[in-house]
Amino acid sequence: MRNLDPLRVHEDSVLDLQGVAVHLGGRAVLQGIDLSLRPGEFVGVIGPNGAGKTTLLKIILGLLRPDEGTVLVAGRDVRAARSLVGYVPQSFAPDPDLPLRARDLVALGLDGARWGFSLGGQRRRAKVEEALGWVDALRYADQPVGRLSGGELQRLLVAQALISDPRIVLLDEPLANLDLRSQGDVVALVGRVAHERGVTVVLVTHDMNPLLSVMDRILYLARGQAALGTVDEVVRGDVLTQLYGHHVDVVRVHGRILVVGGADAESLTCNTCDS
Amino acid sequence: MPGFIESLLAAPAVAPALLIGSLVAVTSGVVGVFVVLRGQSFAGHALGDIGTTGAAAAYLGGLPALYGFVGVGVLGGLAIEGLGERARERDVATGIVLSLMLGVGALLLYFMTQRTDATGGPVAILFGSIFTVDPSIALPVALFSLLALLLLGFLYRPLVFASVNPQAAQAKGVPLQGVGLLFMLALAIAVEESALVAGALLSTALLIGPAAAAVRWTRQIGAAAALSALLGLLAVSVGIALAYQSYFWPPGHRGWPVSFFIVLLVLTEYLLARLLPARAARRPLPRRKEAA
Ligand SMILES: Nc1ncnc2c1ncn2[C@@H]1O[C@H](COP(=O)(O)OP(=O)(O)OP(=O)(O)O)[C@@H](O)[C@H]1O
Ligand SMILES: [Mg+2]
Q: Among A85, A120, A145, B14, which one is least packed by beta carbons within 10 Å?
């Protein structure tokens, strides 16, 4: 792992990984991952399928114990810091008949893990209303979630992840299945809400281009290794060639970035193209 | 009509049947909503079948069928949930537990048929025995129902979270396995109780039918559970009334099975829900605001 700016490692970091390694099914999925994220920072996580992106998020969530290394959230063990982490999982496709309104889905992020019924209450309702407002979802707050579009659902999940006032929010491919315009909307929204609330964002995506305007740093994963830095520091031919272990070119066209691998790495070309 | 209802309630077996049937309908209706949400219809159906083994054993042992149904149903439910963690594994686990238990059940039902005093036994187990059941069983049925509903009340939010968005729930600290196991307990109770009313073969109808209809007509889980309970109540009480009336019908003037009427009514409710999605959600969303 190359942390290209060691000065960026601060003591007040929200997330600290040191020497993290994970083996799954007898294979090293992640190895030697060190990273340190600041409050309010927006980090895009990019990498080919199977690079270990979801695995990395599971470690930060405390759902998976790394075989080596330490993970600290706001200086605490991940299991003690669960309430400080918001999460938007990789796939969410509710049944069309699911009797659950948008506002109920968001409320689950607030107290869905508590036993018993919610006693309702003015404060809870106000909090849900506020979270719906953050993501501009008030207009469909009472609609059943099964009938909403992918973009509308994604906004609700962002609200669900943010409603508990986490310090860091992890989003696993929230842009998949969205058209370009909705991708832009969701990225802008996450960027704005996180910035306003000082929440660190870790957003996994296959295409870095929608993130270029909001992302502070990029975490590039390949072959279980990671490179962390600004886009200009990381998304370079020499850095990515070393990460991937074979020749990679970085092409910039019309303000977009294309990562082009050799003939043996077709997936690379597609990762950063519009599909 | 008032005359019919009076004579219905005055008939000796009807009042306890209505009482027990109502308890069962409410429990099955409420639990059923979560079965539909979680896609566990197969497990629900299997539990009904598995229960026959317990009921047959209870019969042979001289105990009320209810205890056999619930005892074996709970064990079967825990086995299914324990063996299969993911949805697909769970289907396989359900199939395995189901066939094992049915094998034993077939043997026990065979033993029952060998006993001269047990002519109606297997039929009662498979198709329900609401009119012949001992009224004193109403108390244990009520207690089991209370237990299942209290369990659901306790599980409510984590169960909704785990059913709707399991990965997010897990990340928030919801113990998915524990919630699944406790829900299985409530499910087993609901299914086995309704096996007593509608019979083991048809207990799924009371579990899934009203719930599937209610889910289409509501937009909140609590409302769906209430409506499902109501639809179940309707099917059971009208079913009992019709079955009582059928004592005057051909061929034998011995009454048609209650389960037939209940299933017919449940199916009607479900078909109505498919045909008339009354949920106001059908109104179109306001136009999407242009990006600001
Ligand atoms: N439980 C497991 N047992 C064995 N191998 C696993 C397990 N979970 C994940 N893996 C492997 O670990 C690697 C990383 O998986 P992960 O899901 O983190 O990839 P990803 O970067 O999120 O990919 P995608 O872009 O497809 O979502 C993959 O090769 C996957 O096959
Ligand atoms: Mg993934």
A: A120
